[in-house]
Amino acid sequence: MANPDRLKSRLRDGGISRRAFLKYCTTLVSMLGLPSGLTSVMAQTLDRIKRQSVIWLSFQECTGCTESLTRSPAPTIENLIFDFISLDYHHTLQAASGEAAEQAREHARDSSRGKYLLIVDGSIPIADGGVYSTIAGVSNLDMLRSCARDAAAIIAVGSCASFGGLPQAAPNPTGAVSVGNLMERGDIDQKPLVNISGCPPLPTAIAATLAHYVLFNGLPALDTLGRPRAIYGNTVHERCSRLHFYEQKKFAKDFDDEGARKGWCLYEVGCKGPLTHNACATVKWNDGTSFPIESGHPCLGCSEPGFWDRGEFYESLLAKDAVAETSDLDSAESGRAVFEHRCVYCHASGPKPFRTQADRIPHLFQKNPSGVHRLNVSEQELDDLVSYLTRIDRNGQR
Question: Which CATH architecture has domain 234-319?
């Protein structure tokens, strides 16, 4: 008799053909950046695996991450993902409510201790004892702490869970923090963690990461910000359909000028594509139909930490005032402004993981002036950046 817990049985019962299943596996292999020869291995593995227990917690969020995963035509990678996980608790998608819902979460936690996968979307407020967001009278922090304790791994879905997101925007009245912040502070147990950033993230980014965990019992290779390298390894700019206009120096100057109507590069109307790591330009949205730049809107950099506090969304990266006026500040403070307006997009939300020796930075710019280092960074700004990083090194801050 077929085992209903096996993925193969569930797919057959759902009317999914073997051909469609193999196509699905090919998509997964491509999205994960794996060798094409692994398609058949993946199909065989998925045939016999049991469904992975998943607890999904939603905190300070807008439900956009859930919408991203579920709003797509069927059958697709996003829809089929629910066939090989057992989504045992999810505020938006579960049928149960009230006490029954919370009992379902506790049952999933207790019956799969050390084995379930914990997904978190939304930031976690910690100001004033976490009173700004509670579920069944339990603060987000306490619920996360309880569920993280026995989780096998944690996936932070969306920029809010990954980096604090919009709830963390200045002045951050609720004290919103990310899952990774809480681990660093020791407020929750240390667990394997992957960040799927974006506001919202690409549906395939969520699904492919889940598939990788189910297949290999582990998380994919990550970048310096804890994101899957296969998805966030390149900038939007590098794979943009308007890149040739950038190289030809054909830029729209306004949203309704001749350049905009001709589909020229949106770099000078605020596009953050050169500083934003994501697969939007290749995977796209709405079943591969388009993505913001292709639709005429500049990239806002939503998959990068702190994008909500980086100044005007539609201000060009080339603008002379893109870096804060620093004439009245000392060199180190000027360097901090350079770091916050340039380096954080690609390296880190703070200087701690920025491992390059301070005095080596000007040499790196001279050696490799390509990519984001083509942005306007003057010799004075480089000197100030060195002063800033030297000062924090001296103070033991990184």
Answer: Irregular (4.10)
